[in-house]
Design goal:
Blueprint lengths: L18 E5 L1 H7 L5 H6 L2 E6 L12 E5 L3 H12 L6 E5 L5 H13 L6 E6 L5 E4 L2 E3 L10 H5 L5 H22 L4 E4 L4 H18 L22 E4 L7 H4 L5 H8 L1 E3 L2 E5 L18 E5 L5 H6 L2
Parallel strand pairs: 1-2, 1-3, 3-4, 4-5, 8-9
Antiparallel strand pairs: 6-7, 10-11, 11-12
Helix pairs in contact: 3-4, 6-7
């Protein structure tokens, strides 16, 4: 994207093309964990500015936009076109832009006589925030919009619930488009997870139905789309905590229960016979068993069990 949507040529010693990056708060959140200011500069980004800040015209520099296709953002971009702020415009949308909003941009470009300056328009499908190589979150600027509390509020309306579900589904869809794979979806029934699963399934199927415009075929992705190794997407409510049972409970009491012969508050231990080995051919020594009652009177147990 920062290289005008062309794969960067390796081992090229030429100077990068200097350009301006314009993002909204969503775009800022997506880029900041991935690229430092120095890395942006190495890619030719001399300035990175928020879309709704006061920006001066730089008429001889191309601008890369990375924004959500919201009403206010589209209006501001149309305003930039009318004000002739930059030499050329590379418009990248975090989520898919609707046809009506594309027409708004086209009308503004025609009105401003700037059609030739709009170089590229891309749907990037990047509506998720990558924190590590294998961890991402859907949480964005409005933290309260997508949260456990928001879904479980007693006073939530149907339209609000619908908005939350659509936001989650859009982000997950973007993630799988980026991954280039169609998941096998599993969820628990009768929960918000099922609502997300149904909507995501519908969105994936609609996309696959139109073979010419499908995001999961073509040369843009690796050979992954025809692979039988489909990822498994497990959608569960935050009430269902899958991780904790897999961890050892980190208390002395639980450890004794798991590792030693612990039954009805009594531990049976085999005493170790020390380092001396039995002479060859002799019967091995019988191991002595010791029992400990782990009751309230055992001070060591009381102190360390929790």
């Amino acid at each position: 994207m920062l290289n005008f949507n062309v794969p960067p040529v390796k081992n090229s010693t030429g100077e990068p093309v200097w350009k301006v990056l314009i993002y909204d708060r969503f775009g800022q959140d997506i880029i900041s964990p991935l690229l430092s200011v120095k890395e942006l500069r190495d890619m030719g980004i001399t300035l990175h500015l928020l879309l709704h800040s006061d920006r001066d015209a730089i008429p001889d520099v191309p601008a890369v936009y990375f924004v959500m296709p919201t009403e206010e953002n589209i209006d501001r971009m149309c305003q930039d076109l009318r004000n002739q702020l930059y030499e050329s415009y590379y418009l990248n949308f975090i989520s898919a832009i609707s046809r009506s909003k594309l027409e708004d941009i086209a009308n503004a470009a025609i009105g401003a006589n700037a059609v030739t300056q709009v170089a590229k328009v891309f749907d990037q499908y990047l509506n998720f925030i990558t924190l590590e190589d294998d961890m991402f979150v859907l949480c964005n600027q409005n933290k309260e919009l997508v949260s456990y509390r928001a879904i479980n509020r007693p006073d939530i309306t149907d339209t609000e619930m619908e908005t939350i579900m659509d936001t989650i589904v859009d982000s997950l869809f973007c993630f799988f488009v980026t991954l280039g794979a169609i998941p096998i979806i599993r969820c628990s029934r009768g929960t918000a997870a099922e609502m997300v699963a149904v909507k995501l399934d519908k969105k994936l199927r609609e996309n696959l139905r139109d073979a010419r415009n499908s995001l999961f075929t073509g040369d843009t992705l690796g050979a992954g789309q025809f692979s039988f190794q489909r990822p498994l997407l497990v959608l569960v409510d935050r009430n269902i905590d899958l991780a904790t049972p897999l961890h050892h409970t980190w208390t002395y009491q639980a450890l004794v229960h798991d590792v030693l012969d612990f039954h009805l508050n009594r531990v049976n231990l085999e005493e170790s016979t020390g380092m001396e080995s039995s002479p060859a051919g002799a019967r091995p020594k019988k191991k002595n068993k010791k029992s400990y009652d782990l009751t309230a009177s055992d001070k060591f147990w009381q102190k360390h069990k929790g």
